[in-house]
Each structure stands twice: as C-alpha cells, then as structure tokens.
Specification:
By secondary structure, this protein is mostly helical. The chain is about 70% helix and about 5% strand. Strands 1-3-2 form a three-stranded mixed sheet, sandwiched between helices. The chain is globular and about 75 Å long. It starts with a helix and ends with a helix.
Length: about 375
C-alpha cells in the first residue's frame, strides 16, 4: 500500500470518526441531562455555572439586533425544515439508493433536533430541577388560609384603585401610557427587590417586541416568552398595555434565573410593586389582584363579591378591556359566516393544541401543575404580604 493510499484511507477514517462524534455529542449531552436531572444539587450547579453565564452572554449578543432575534431564528428554522423536507423528497425520488439517501437526510434532521434540545436542556430545563426561588429564600409550602387570602386580596384591590388614578389616561378614561417609555425603563425595576433577594441581582436586557408573531401569541393566549437560546425576553405587542409592565417583569425574572412560572409571576409582581415606577406599580397591583381574586372566587364567593364591589371605575374599565381583548381572540370575524366559523374552529384547535403541548412540557420538566402554575403565585403573594 503506497503512501498516498494510506493517507486517503486515514483521511476517510478521520472524517468518519468526526462525523460519528458530531452525531453522538448531542445524544450524549441529552442522555447526561436525563441521568442527572434527579439530583437537585447538580442541576443547581448547572443552572448557576452553565445556564446563567451562557444565557447572559447570549442576551448581550442579542442586543446587536434591535428586534426579536427569536423571531428570526424560529422563522429561519421553519423555512429550512420545509425546504429540507421538500428537497429530501425530490432527491430521494430521482436518485438511486433511495433508502440510503433518505436515511442520511433523516439523520441530519435528527441530529439538528438533538443539538437544539440538548442546548435547551442545559440552558433552561436544568433550572426546573434545581432548588427554586421559593425554596432558596425560605418560603413555606404549607398553603394559606382563606382569611389571609381575603386580607391580601383587599390590599391589592385598594392599591390597584389608588394607582389606577396615577397612570396616564385619555379623555375616555382609557389607559394611555407610552409603551416605549415603560419598556425602556424595565431594566431598572429590579433594584429594590434585588436588595431584598440578592439572587435577583445582575444585568438585565430590555425586552424585545414580537412583530411577526404577536398575533399568534394573542390567538393562543400568551403575553410573553423567554427564549433561552437567544437570552431574550419577548413581548406580545397586541396585549393590553396596562398589564404589559407586569409581563415584562415576569420575563425579566426568567432572565435572572427564576425558572418556575409561579415563582416568576411572584417575582415579577414583587419587582413591580417595589420599583418606585408608578406604571409598573399599577401593573403589579392589578396583575396580582387578578390572580388573587380568581383564587378567592373559588375559596369564598361572598368575600370575592365584597372585594370586587369596591373596584374603582378605572380598575373596572381596565379589567373589562382585558377580558374583552382575550375573548376577541377566540373568534374570527371575516364577514362571511362560513369562513368565520371555519377560522374560529381552527383558532380554537390550534390554541388548545398549544396549551396541551406546553402543559405537557411543563409537567415533564418537574412543573407538576403544568399551565396552572402560572396562577400558583397566589400562595407566595399571600405569604409575602401576610408576613
């Protein structure tokens, strides 16, 4: 065997070895995550030592692009997947060795999916299995009494009434604060709450508006999303403005390593209430009031009716506007009954499917309440304000 042939054989073996490593790496990383995720200490170290610095670096990098980089990434990914599937069908049909070609192309897709999932596991999912904010900061998990729930709900109602008069409104009494202004102020709202809970200290990056997919978020019932792979907090720009500051605070809580949804809700509301910014304070009192009153309506109807009867005209107006907006997203009106009914059915189906998938995802990541965890911040609010 001559030297040239040996070199060719070596290069071939090296390429094969590299190919195997590239394909095996995400599988190994994913398997390692699932093997270790039952160990809170290891997951806590991963969340602090891997997830936090990498997500922060990604968030800093994402600042280069002023709009949502997540939208670009998702759009490109979907476009590539569609192109790749179509291309794979064409190549498989017109070439020999169809099974071999199809297998290679399917393997490529599988490897890409594993890379994305393995990164997401170590950048975000690890936090679901680490000690949470409540556990790390001494919150009890014993539940709350109806009496305490009623007291705190009344407090939030009184404060919501008070701050509803302090935010800007138009001549019809509708909320009219400038969204760009309170979005720009968002990175300063964690100063006071971080003094109380040092684990919340750190740099925050301004949330990004979802320009392409806000309509989809509205139709599926979501106001914001934190995307760990770009380190961005993304906001639905169609949602009512008076609650948007609280949504922003929630997504910023995720930036600071608060992974669980109930805890991010609590931290976001607490950040709003301690921010010293009237716009954020009103959003925090109103958002908290919505969660608390919903819980109280199930626990004590009479107490709930007593609280709601005391809502100011401004709170009632905002409350109704929020209700009307989300109700409007459940139906589609084109002026043609058949088309409207069809699109409404499609909207309901898609929204239900998204909820089912996300609920299943949360439950699979140690969030046993699934989507209900978004409202589980009530216990934390009551405990915090009853102390």
């Amino acid at each position: 065997m001559d030297e040239r042939h040996k070199r060719t054989l070596f290069d071939s073996k090296l390429r094969r070895a590299v190919y195997i490593v590239i394909c095996a790496l995400p599988v190994v990383l994913t398997a390692l995550f699932y093997a270790l995720r039952s160990n809170p200490d290891v997951m806590g170290r991963a969340a602090a030592g891997i997830s936090a610095p990498v997500r922060s670096a990604l968030g800093l990098f994402s600042l280069v692009y002023p709009l949502s980089l997540m939208e670009v990434v998702c759009t490109v990914a979907v476009a590539w997947l569609i192109f790749y599937i179509v291309r794979s069908v064409m190549v498989t049909v017109h070439r020999r060795g169809k099974l071999k070609i199809l297998s290679k192309r399917l393997l490529t897709v599988l490897v890409v999916v594993f890379y994305i999932w393995s990164m997401y596991c170590w950048l975000w999912n690890c936090g679901y299995f680490a000690p949470g904010f409540a556990e790390s900061n001494g919150f009890s998990s014993a539940g709350v009494s109806v009496a305490d729930l009623t007291t705190v709900t009344k407090l939030f109602a009184e404060k919501a009434n008070e701050f509803s008069l302090l935010v800007k409104r138009d001549q019809d009494g509708r909320y009219s604060e400038d969204r760009r202004e309170f979005t720009a102020a968002s990175t300063d709202i964690y100063g006071n709450i971080a003094s109380e809970y040092p684990c919340l200290e750190g740099r925050l990056y301004s949330p990004k508006p979802m320009l392409l997919y806000s309509w989809l978020m509205s139709r599926t019932g979501y106001t914001g999303i934190y995307f760990a792979l770009t380190g961005e907090s993304n906001i639905n720009t169609q949602a009512p403005g008076f609650l948007m500051p609280a949504t922003i605070a929630h997504e910023l809580a995720h930036q600071r390593g608060v992974f669980a949804e109930d805890e991010a809700n609590f931290v976001g509301i607490a950040a709003c209430l301690t921010s010293g910014n009237v716009v954020y304070e009103y959003a925090g009192w109103l958002m908290g009031l919505m969660y608390l009153s919903n819980a109280l309506s199930h626990a004590d109807v009479e107490a709930w009716l007593d609280v709601t009867s005391g809502f100011s005209a401004e709170v009632r107006l905002d409350w109704q506007e929020n209700h009307d907006f989300w109700q409007s997203q459940k139906t589609v009106d084109t002026g043609i009954e058949f088309v409207s009914n069809l699109l409404t059915t499609v909207t309901e189906t898609v929204s239900g499917a998204v909820d089912t998938v996300y609920d299943g995802y949360l439950r699979s990541q140690n969030q046993t309440l699934g989507l209900k965890s978004y409202g589980a911040c009530v216990d934390l609010l009551v405990e915090y304000f009853s102390a």
